[in-house]
Amino acid sequence: MELGGGIANYEVETRGFTAFISESLLQPLVAMPAGMDRGTIVQHLSEMLKCIWEHLLRRIDFARRLTDDPIELSAREEHPVKAIGWAARDQSGVLSPFKFSRRATGINDVTFKVLYCGICHTDLHSIKNDWGMSKYPLVPGHEVVGIVTKVGSKVQKFKVGDKVGVGCMVGACHSCNNCARNLENYCPKMLLTYNSTYYDGTPTYGGYSNIMVANEHFVIRWPDNLPLDVGAPLLCAGITIYSPLKYYGLNKPDMHVGVVGLGGLGHLAVKFAKAFRVKVTVISTSPGKRSEAIEHLGADSFLISTYLDQMQAASNTLDGIIDTVSAVHPLLPLLNLLKCDGKLVLVGAPGKPLELPVFPLLSGRKIVAGSAIGGIKETQEMIDLAARNKITADVEVIPIDYVNRAMERLAKADVKYRFVIDIGKTLKDA
Ligand SMILES: [Zn+2]
Ligand SMILES: [Zn+2]
């Protein structure tokens, strides 16, 4: 059924909707002779319910557009659970305390007290509207961990007191091909933990807040031996590099993998690759990071990408590269490092297109690929593997009122390697 679009069409849409329900669905049902096949009735009823649902969603959207200031409207939408967080109000990106509300614990929901939340580079891009998609007020945070305080009646995986985490997603359609393959991260209807609109029409708010509510499908069980503060960054940074290492077959012990960029993602890429007993070469523009990469993180070798003789000597040695750099950078020197059939996997998101030289791809059947986080099943697998192998992020734990300074430092890559906000101790319930 087509309902058209736009506020001007709303009346027409409503009349059309009512007529459609009445003529196409109800009348055949009423006129249906006794003994009519049950399947047809069920089909009519389910179509009718689908139409009603779609219409309700449109009404929510219509109501939002009635106001010139949708932020004001969303601020008035009160859920029953009072929450406090830190939000950016505009693209200055300055974060400040923000009172809002969370939905009551639904039958499939888990509510938890947030104890720690990692600061991801995406948070910085989002508060400053670098990608032009930010809706304010915006509460960032998608590396959220804490303790369950309430569970819905149908929740099976969790009970009150359990340690849990929520990463980048809080919703997906559960019926598309990607969802069927446990790849909710590639579901066209995937909902982000913050800066998305939830099914009830309200904004999603992230983990720089004292309380989270999420459908249990998107909640990760937290192993007892994995500390919450140093484990939190695994929920985004960890899965972002774990998933491509595995999917592109770079997790086999005889592999030699390059890691470009030694930041929040890169340092975890080295740690996971070493846990897979893969040979690791860190590729960086900073000569000063050599001892850090080799002595502290356990990388096998180190290349400075601007030293042509070093790069030349290492050409044709790598089976794959995880490229974590989110600034515009040349790909040619990296492609030259790959063996035949080598894979260059991009997990950073430069704001502008990169130049892709094709000749080096042809000569050696090389692949340039991408990857974005991972599905919930794989995220759980990654967290469990991290706990078994004692893989944690190197973090600087900060109080919430340091968060604006932390953002300034993150913009200059002045952190080893992830800021984690101590929400539990420093975000006071106002
Ligand atoms: Zn992230
Ligand atoms: Zn889906």
UniProtKB/TrEMBL annotation:
Cofactor requirements of the protein: Zn(2+)
Example GO BP: lignin biosynthetic process
SMART domains in the cross-refs: PKS_ER (SM00829)
PROSITE patterns assigned to the protein according to its UniProt record, in alphabetical order: ADH_ZINC
Molecular function in Gene Ontology: oxidoreductase activity, acting on the CH-OH group of donors, NAD or NADP as acceptor; zinc ion binding
Record-linked Pfam families: ADH_N, ADH_zinc_N
Family statement drawn from the similarity comment of this UniProt entry: Belongs to the zinc-containing alcohol dehydrogenase family.
Designated name of the protein: Enoyl reductase (ER) domain-containing protein
